[in-house]
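User: My instructor asked us to take a sequence, write out its structure as tokens, and then describe one feature of it. I'm not sure where to start. Here is the sequence I was given:
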Amino acid sequence: VMSMDHEVNTIPIIEHLLNIGKKVFVPKTNYETKQMEFQRLHDLNSIAIDQKGIKYVDEETEISDDIDLIIVPGVVFNQAGYRIGYGGGYYDKYLSHYKGHTISLLYPFQIRNFDAESHDIPVDEMLTPNHIWRRVDG
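Assistant: Let's start with the prediction itself. The structure tokens for your sequence are:
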């Protein structure tokens, strides 16, 4: 995921992955159809910002669902790995059929107690600077 300014910065992670030859895909959101897919990022120079302030790849590149790991953003998370996002439901829709691994990078103040809703999809792992939470249910 391309982090927003108030989120844990993922640019160094992305830069490292690109430097060691890994394929990196970032979200591409269609606001009219409310769908999200993942588009290949070849270098950081092809990043632009859309009308909602979201970073995206500003060139025609490969679209793929063959992704091993997704870094999932969120506003707050509970200790079971459920998250409250930004209100669009894009990630929950995508994750409902995704079979790979999910992880969220967050600050300790983002851990809160709340009840998950029926459509929510938990992440497999959450990392803060001092703690790792792993989902134990299957």
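For the description part of your assignment, you could build on this observation: The two ends are 24 Å apart (CA to CA). Try explaining in your own words what that tells you about the chain.
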